[in-house]
Amino acid sequence: MANRSLTAWSESFASLDQCPWPGPRPLAEDEGELLVGRAEQCESLVRLLQQRRLVPLHGPSGVGKSSFISAGLIPLLRASGARVFHADKWGGAPGIIDDDAKSRGHLFLDRKGATPARVFSGLWEATAHVEKITDFDKDEIMFLLEGSFTITDDTGHAETFHPGDACLMPMGFTGEWRHDETVRKFYMIVDYGDAA
């Protein structure tokens, strides 16, 4: 096993024009060729993530957890068709008095230049049904409270959401909405009217 890893390292690094170790920073998503000997672990983690909603990855500082995720796991997830969202780096939280407070997030929707004709939100509850959606004419952000539903896009990619999950159905979406039980969700809809 050790000899196989050393051979993989030497073969991988022989074609590089630069030092393969970036220093005290994690590897980036496009530096997968530098993450050698972890392919089986990455594939195993992808399988676990397909079976479970949460898979903890832990280890001492400096052993390569961030590199493993960025350069190994994320490219495999993208290749499988999964949508991957990055949270921004921790930063200061404007307006918060406590100097130690930090915040971060991920922007899911930014339609620059589009002025909504109407923005509304509320609670929605419905019994089991299937709905065909063609060229959805709004943006809808949902937070599921009860039940579960599956959204399948026109390429056949399906995602199932459970209580505590949030998702965005973007303007222009075509596909199918299905739930086999009563569903209750909080929603916010951004309707652009004729400007869409």
Structure description:
It is a single chain. It is globular and about 55 Å long. It folds into 2 domains: 2-79, no CATH class; 118-195, Jelly Rolls, CATH 2.60.120.10. Helix content is 21%, strand content 28%. It has 196 residues and is of the alpha+beta class. It has helices spanning 2-14, 39-51, 65-79; strands at residues 91-92, 102-103, 118-126, 129-133, 138-146, 149-153, 158-161, 166-169, 175-179, 183-191. The model has no long low-confidence stretch (mean pLDDT 79).
What tags apply to this protein structure?
globular, 196 residues, alpha+beta, four-stranded antiparallel sheet, Jelly Rolls
Question: Helices, strands, pairings?
Answer:
Elements: H1 2-14, H2 39-51, H3 65-79, E1 91-92, E2 102-103, E3 118-126, E4 129-133, E5 138-146, E6 149-153, E7 158-161, E8 166-169, E9 175-179, E10 183-191
Antiparallel strand pairs: 1-2, 3-10, 4-9, 5-8, 5-10, 6-7, 6-9
Helix pairs in contact: 2-3
- The helix content, as a percent range, equals 10-25%
Q: Could you give the order of strands across the largest sheet?
A: 3-10-5-8
Series of H and E elements = HHHEEEEEEEEEE
Structural class category: alpha+beta
Give the integer mean of the pLDDT values.
79
What best-fitting shape do the alpha-carbon axes yield? Answer: globular
The radius of gyration computed from the alpha-carbon positions, rounded to a whole number of angstroms, is 22 Å
Q: Could you tell me the strand content as a percent range?
A: 25-35%
Task: Write down the domain tally.
Answer: 2
The biggest beta sheet, please?
Answer: 4 strands, antiparallel
Low-confidence segments: none
Straight-line N-to-C gap? 57 Å
Count of runs of 4 or more consecutive helical residues = 3
Number of distinct beta strands: 10
